[in-house]
């Protein structure tokens, strides 16, 4: 928002279409795309991995998820801003003063401090361990603890500051509960019952697993209109729909990763469907009707790319 206002685009002055409407919409939609590119890009992605492991007995690695998402999501990162530029363009299409302003602000900030350098190094090490740690027996939890320990030992982060991160503790507690609930739903037969119910509807149609998986994904994706959180949707429906996909013959790795990726993209549908939605919409640059229309139209395009291009890519890299 500060960038938009600096460029003379302020909804309070009626100049939101100058640049802010396009910028807010583009950043929001691309953030939904990038959230699906890596396990560590969205808080609920590890929940998808754990639920998939409970059902398939196989744990998706950071590298497998990133490789699977790289081509379809990479295409979306290029195509979505271009589509928005065509159908929801900014009034200002050139800003030659931007590079000079950015350079001035960087000079004003000065060089990186020691704490910033430690933070950058710790983050790089943590991500590297997430990516390559599995080869050395280092799990995701241990990787995160290594990064946090470095920050606390060096004084970049204090325990008091950790305790003040209420949303992070909420995530930790709720995810543990959601994973336990999902495991017990499977153990006591609710998920298998639901899976068999849907399969009994899909199988008589005589569809191949590709078409069956398309139906499953569409229902899973557009049911997000009923949810105000990606994590809540994943906790409530991911395991059940993954079970249905597996029962219809979908290769386990394809089903688990595809549903995991679209669990992020479905946040684009509404202004409340993902955590980043309310702040972007609340900035006041995009009317509600326009927000929903753009989300609905782009959702069709994004699903087409993820399932269409993705299925070819996943075949090439040996996922099925």
Spell out the key features of this protein:
single chain; 320 residues; mainly alpha; 15 helices; 70% helix; globular
Please give a quick description of this structure:
Helices cover about 70% and strands about 0% of the residues. It contains 15 helices and no strands.
Strand portion: under 5%
Radius of gyration: 21 Å
| Uncertain residue ranges | none
**Helical stretch tally:** 15
What sequence of helices (H) and strands (E) makes up the elements? Answer: HHHHHHHHHHHHHHH
Helix content: over 70%
Q: Give a count of the beta strands, DSSP E runs of length 2 or more.
A: 0
Distance between the termini: 44 Å
What's the main sheet like?
Answer: none
Average pLDDT works out at 87
- What class, by secondary structure content? mainly alpha
Shape: globular
Give the topology.
Layout: H1 2-6, H2 20-35, H3 45-56, H4 62-87, H5 98-109, H6 114-132, H7 140-153, H8 159-163, H9 166-187, H10 190-202, H11 209-222, H12 230-247, H13 252-265, H14 277-282, H15 288-316
Helix pairs in contact: 2-4, 3-9, 3-12, 3-13, 4-15, 6-7, 9-12, 10-12, 11-12, 11-13, 12-13, 13-15
């Amino acid at each position: 928002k500060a960038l938009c206002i600096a460029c003379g685009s302020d909804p309070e002055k009626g100049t939101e279409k100058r640049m802010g409407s396009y910028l807010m919409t583009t950043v929001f939609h691309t953030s939904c795309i990038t959230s699906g590119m890596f396990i560590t890009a969205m808080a609920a992605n590890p929940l998808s991995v754990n639920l998939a492991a409970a059902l398939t007995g196989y744990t998706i690695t950071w590298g497998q998820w990133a490789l699977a998402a790289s081509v379809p999501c990479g295409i979306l990162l290029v195509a979505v801003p271009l589509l928005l530029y065509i159908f929801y363009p900014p009034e200002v299409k050139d800003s030659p003063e931007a590079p000079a302003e950015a350079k001035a602000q960087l000079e004003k900030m000065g060089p990186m401090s020691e704490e910033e350098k430690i933070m950058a190094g710790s983050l790089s090490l943590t991500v590297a361990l997430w990516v390559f740690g599995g080869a050395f027996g280092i799990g995701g939890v241990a990787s995160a603890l290594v990064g946090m320990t470095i920050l606390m030992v060096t004084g970049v982060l204090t325990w008091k500051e950790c305790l003040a991160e209420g949303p992070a503790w909420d995530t930790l507690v709720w995810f543990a509960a959601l994973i336990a609930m999902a495991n017990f739903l499977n153990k006591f037969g609710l998920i298998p019952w639901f899976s068999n119910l849907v399969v009994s509807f899909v199988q008589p149609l005589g569809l191949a697993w590709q078409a069956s998986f398309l139906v499953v994904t569409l229902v899973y994706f557009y049911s997000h209109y009923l949810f105000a959180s990606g994590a809540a949707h994943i906790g409530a429906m991911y395991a059940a729909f993954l079970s249905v996909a597996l029962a219809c013959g979908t290769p386990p790795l394809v089903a688990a990763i595809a549903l995991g990726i679209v669990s992020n993209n479905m946040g684009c549908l509404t202004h409340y469907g993902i955590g980043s939605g309310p702040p972007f919409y609340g900035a006041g640059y995009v009317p509600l009707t326009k927000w929903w229309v753009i989300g609905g139209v782009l959702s069709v395009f994004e699903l087409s790319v993820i399932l269409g291009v993705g299925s070819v890519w996943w075949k090439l890299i040996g996922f099925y």
